[in-house]
């Protein structure tokens, strides 16, 4: 999957920068999950765009990342991050090194998410947090993306008039596997995580999601970008 993102690394940043309200709605959501997060590892940090904004505009300093795409990693390093090139399945999460493992936009690009969640549980200290953030399969965007993936294009009569003027690049849509919120909850609980909390953003129809910047809301009942936060229990 990393090689595909190598080819389109610049397109990834360009899409987010062209869709500023979507970008900042998502950044606001990520920031809301990182209060008192301690030392953070960003798994699948991409180009480091989110981390740069979080550091410069929100005072949240994330310096360590894992990213399989060398093209993305090079951009993230120029933005001040220390990046290990590896997939989430291959990567060492550093047992006890990080208080929070952040997966922002990456769960849908991880094949063995179950194994990665189990590995995260083993690596985190007691009380440590895992944060899974992405587009839920059941959301408006999730349904649109899966239809575009099945059709292999955005340019199809079945999708006409249903997607934003500047849709997420089909190259990124094509390699993703979206999971429902319920599936992610089941994986987290099976690994041993507890105290699950949810936050959501992009609550407008995809046609209108870039019209205004949103602040996150609790829950997962209407958002097209959803955060699931869970803790590793503290033994008594």
Could you provide a short overview of the structure?
The chain has one domain: Rossmann fold, CATH 3.40.50.150. 37% of the residues lie in helices and 16% in strands. It has helices at residues 2-7, 9-18, 20-32, 49-58, 70-78, 113-123, 140-151, 170-174, 181-191, and strands at residues 40-43, 64-66, 82-84, 100-104, 129-134, 194-201, 217-218, 225-231.
Fold topology:
Blueprint: H1 2-7, H2 9-18, H3 20-32, E1 40-43, H4 49-58, E2 64-66, H5 70-78, E3 82-84, E4 100-104, H6 113-123, E5 129-134, H7 140-151, H8 170-174, H9 181-191, E6 194-201, E7 217-218, E8 225-231
Parallel strand pairs: 1-2, 1-4, 2-3, 4-5
Antiparallel strand pairs: 5-8, 6-7, 6-8
Helix pairs in contact: 6-9
Polypeptide structure, described:
The protein starts with a helix and ends in a 5-residue tail after the last strand. It has helices at 2-7, 9-18, 20-32, 49-58, 70-78, 113-123, 140-151, 170-174, 181-191, and strands at residues 40-43, 64-66, 82-84, 100-104, 129-134, 194-201, 217-218, 225-231. The mean pLDDT is 94. The chain has one domain: Vaccinia Virus protein VP39 (Rossmann fold, 3-Layer(aba) Sandwich). It is of the alpha/beta class and 236 residues long. It has an eight-stranded mixed sheet with strand order 3-2-1-4-5-8-6-7, with helices on both faces.
């Amino acid at each position: 999957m990393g090689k595909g993102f190598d080819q389109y690394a610049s397109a990834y940043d360009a899409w987010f920068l062209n869709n500023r309200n979507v970008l900042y709605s998502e950044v606001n959501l990520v920031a809301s999950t990182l209060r008192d997060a301690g030392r953070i590892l960003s798994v699948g940090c991409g180009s480091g765009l989110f981390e740069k904004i979080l550091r410069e505009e929100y005072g949240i300093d994330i310096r360590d990342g894992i990213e399989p795409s060398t093209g993305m990693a090079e951009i993230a390093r120029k933005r001040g991050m220390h990046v290990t090139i590896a997939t989430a399945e291959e990567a060492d999460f550093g047992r006890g090194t990080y208080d929070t493992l952040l997966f922002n936009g990456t769960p849908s690009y991880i094949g063995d998410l179950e194994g990665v969640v189990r590995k995260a549980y083993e690596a985190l200290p007691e009380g440590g947090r895992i944060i899974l953030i992405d587009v839920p399969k059941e959301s408006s965007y999730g349904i649109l993306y899966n239809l575009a993936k099945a059709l292999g294009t955005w340019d199809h009569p079945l999708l006409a008039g249903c997607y934003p003027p500047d849709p997420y690049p089909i190259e990124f849509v094509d390699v993703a596997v979206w999971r429902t919120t319920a599936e992610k909850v089941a994986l987290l609980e099976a690994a041993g995580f507890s105290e699950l909390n949810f936050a959501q953003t992009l609550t407008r129809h995809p046609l209108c999601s870039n019209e205004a910047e949103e602040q996150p809301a609790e829950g997962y009942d209407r958002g097209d970008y959803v955060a699931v936060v869970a803790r590793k229990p503290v033994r008594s």
